[in-house]
From TrEMBL:
CDD domains: CcO_II_C. The lineage of its organism: Bacteria, Pseudomonadati, Pseudomonadota, Alphaproteobacteria, Caulobacterales. It comes from Phenylobacterium soli. This is Cytochrome c oxidase subunit 2. The keyword Metal-binding applies. The keyword Calcium does not apply. One of its GO terms (biological process) is ATP synthesis coupled electron transport. The gene is coxB. Residues 285-335 have a biased composition (Low complexity). It is an enzyme of class 7 (translocase). Its cofactor is Cu cation.
Length: 335
């Protein structure tokens, strides 16, 4: 009898070890792909925004150790009970019930664990809620079954982004069902506000590398934000079951330099928002050619007096303007 129990135990341990190695073997040592899922991976996608770093910390450093400890503790209790109080080992059970001390402990300890989690959870929620002053606003509208993107500051009216067909995706070497016909292009290192809404049914705008997911609800405008740290291509998708082609409405975000963003805006016949005074002087020094386009104020705030160069003076004298001054003069030199 005893050997049978030991046999089961070694079988269970063998199964667990096999499952663990199958789980980790495929992914743990493979390099995670940036901005898209990695085949065989089980961890969160690597983050490229401060919010995602915070979310990864919350998951990996707070939630995962706690849930692991609780699971192992409960498993230990179950095994202890099975071994110590089975019919053979404990033929005459005790008759007592209720133990005040242990009941206080098993009520209080979970409460304290939840309060501990809540401290970090609320901190993260506030970080998501407290958007810094945005440098750029884009509006994303979910349709059955594609996305529409609009750049109100740059006066780029809505354009449609569909799933890239499979043959074209293969030809370009991009992931099918993640690649889109039109990317959402944003400058790197800038706070991007995303206004999200739905036109027909509820969709959801989600980009895992940014740690961003928010519902796109008809008749309501939701708001989220991200600040991308590295240039690159980042993929997301609709995350609300919105109909038969729900799986075919990807989100493709290109994080580019200021100069590349300005070129993209020009290609869409948009106008760059009014730069801060430091930017204007820097670009004038660099080359005269960049000045007229930069001076073409397109911000809604300046719409009442578009020719007033003093109007943008109140706009963001933030640390971001320091990066602008360094980046701006280099841009025209490249041409
Ligand atoms: Cu959808």
């Amino acid at each position: 009898m005893k050997s049978g129990f030991q046999g089961m135990r070694s079988l269970a341990m063998g199964l667990a070890a096999g499952a663990m190695s199958a789980f980790w073997g495929a992914s743990a040592f493979a390099e995670d792909l940036m901005g898209q899922p990695t085949p065989g991976a089980i961890d969160l996608q690597p983050g490229v925004t401060p919010l995602k770093h915070d979310a990864i910390f919350f998951h990996n450093a707070i939630l995962l150790p706690i849930i692991t400890a609780i699971t192992l503790f409960v498993l230990g209790l179950l095994i202890y009970v099975m071994v110590k109080f089975n019919k053979r080992a404990n033929p005459v059970p005790a008759k007592w019930s209720h133990n005040t001390a242990i009941e206080v402990v098993w009520t209080l300890v979970p409460v304290l664990i939840l309060v501990f989690i809540a401290i970090f959870s609320f901190k993260l929620l506030f970080a998501y809620h407290d958007m810094p002053k945005p440098d750029l606003t884009v509006k994303a509208t979910g349709y059955q079954w594609y996305w529409g993107y609009e750049y109100p500051d740059q006066k780029i009216s809505e354009f449609v982004s569909n799933v890239l067909p499979e043959d074209k995706a293969k030809a370009k070497g991009v992931p099918y069902r993640l690649a889109a016909t039109e990317p959402l292009v944003v400058p790197v290192g800038k706070t991007v506000r995303v206004l999200v809404t739905g036109a027909d049914v509820i969709h959801a705008f989600a980009v895992p590398a940014f740690g961003v997911i928010i519902d796109a609800i008809p008749g309501r405008v939701n708001e989220t934000w991200f600040k991308i740290e590295k240039p690159g291509v980042y993929y997301g998708s609709c995350r609300e079951l919105c109909g038969v082609d729900h799986a075919f409405m990807p989100i493709e975000v290109h994080a580019v330099s200021d100069a590349e963003f300005a070129a993209w805006v020009a290609s869409k016949h948009g106008t760059m928002a009014a730069p801060t005074p430091t930017q204007v002087s820097a670009e004038v020094q660099g080359t005269g050619a960049a000045a007229p386009s930069a001076a073409a104020a397109g911000q809604p705030a300046a719409a009442t007096a578009p020719e007033n160069p003093a109007a943008p003076a109140g706009a963001t004298p933030s640390p971001t303007s320091a990066t602008n001054t360094t980046a701006a003069p280099q841009a025209p030199a490249a041409h």
